[in-house]
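Example 9 (inverse folding). The structure is encoded as follows.
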């Protein structure tokens, strides 16, 4: 996949350096991973998608996912959380409909992991088992939860992390973009700070490199381009049996600006998992979690708003009665 060369982007006074790379690996013959990193209207976007469904099919799914997310966010008139949800909705239906119309692509789907940086707010959208890591002040934190069979058993206490890495079902994911008419989107957010480094990667990276190794690499005094290359090299040294993709973002400066939407009160809490289908039900749930802050949106959230026409009617009737009483001979 061809992407713009590493660059330094400026939007407002927020400065971000970035780089992304993807390779087939030592074993696979085709690369089913896709990625994008760059500016879009109203923010800054990074996306990693790891396709599934066999040769060509997985590749088509991941490419469609990345292209649709990018184009939808470029043209969206919604505010960022809702825009991201609508982009995921469009991408899911685009891939599902394509597979329905092309029987040879039956079963296609893809992971989707995305970060949208809106000044001091970082929005994380996640489906599948690709990952987002945050490196800050010498520590590494995984911002996403894997949607996989083994990861769910680990969270339930049935498997240990070491057992999960060796389990024969470790590659089975439980949630994929485009596989069904509905998809579960994990949406969360974090506070963007100067000095943050973010890594988005497909499981070809994190299945081979431990959190300790990732932290060691990402803590090095190097450019994002150098860091992504080191991640590629380390994965290849270990055999890279799967496609490998890494996107590294470095935050050099942050401008704090008022947002047109409110954030949930708690940061770094477990992400909200919201089902998004062909209707606006899932979109509305995200709009409720990240409500708009303009006057009309706040007005619509008032408990009396659904009864506004009744209230206006009653007030109008009272006004007529008063006027009639005053003017009565």
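The amino acid assigned to each position is listed next.
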């Amino acid at each position: 996949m061809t992407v713009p060369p590493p660059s330094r982007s400026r939007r407002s006074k927020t400065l971000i350096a970035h780089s992304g790379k993807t390779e087939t690996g030592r074993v696979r013959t085709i690369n089913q991973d896709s990625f994008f990193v760059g500016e879009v209207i109203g923010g800054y976007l990074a996306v990693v998608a790891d396709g599934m469904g066999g040769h060509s099919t997985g590749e088509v799914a991941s490419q469609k996912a990345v292209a649709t997310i990018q184009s939808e966010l470029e043209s969206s008139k919604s505010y960022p959380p809702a825009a991201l949800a609508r982009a995921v909705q469009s991408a899911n239906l685009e891939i599902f409909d394509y597979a329905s119309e092309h029987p040879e692509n039956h079963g296609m789907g893809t992971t989707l992991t995305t970060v949208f940086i809106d000044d001091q707010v970082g929005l994380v959208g996640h489906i599948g088992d690709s990952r987002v890591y945050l490196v800050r002040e010498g520590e590494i934190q995984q911002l996403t939860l894997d949607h996989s069979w083994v990861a769910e058993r680990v969270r339930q206490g049935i498997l240990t992390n070491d057992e999960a890495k060796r389990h024969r079902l470790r590659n089975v994911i439980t949630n994929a973009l485009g596989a069904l008419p509905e998809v579960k989107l994990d949406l969360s957010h974090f506070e963007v700070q100067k000095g943050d480094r973010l890594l988005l990667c497909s499981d070809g990276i994190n299945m081979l490199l431990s959190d300790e190794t990732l932290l060691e690499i990402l803590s090095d005094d190097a450019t994002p381009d150098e860091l992504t290359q080191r991640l590629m090299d380390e994965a290849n040294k270990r055999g890279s049996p799967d496609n490998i993709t890494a996107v590294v973002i470095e935050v050099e400066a942050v401008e704090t600006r008022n947002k047109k939407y409110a954030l949930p009160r708690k940061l770094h809490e477990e992400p909200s998992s919201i089902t998004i289908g062909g209707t606006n039900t899932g979109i509305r749930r995200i709009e409720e979690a990240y409500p708009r802050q303009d006057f009309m949106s706040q007005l619509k959230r008032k408990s009396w708003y659904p009864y506004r026409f009744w209230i206006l009617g009653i007030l109008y009737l009272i006004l007529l009665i008063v006027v009639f009483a005053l003017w009565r001979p």
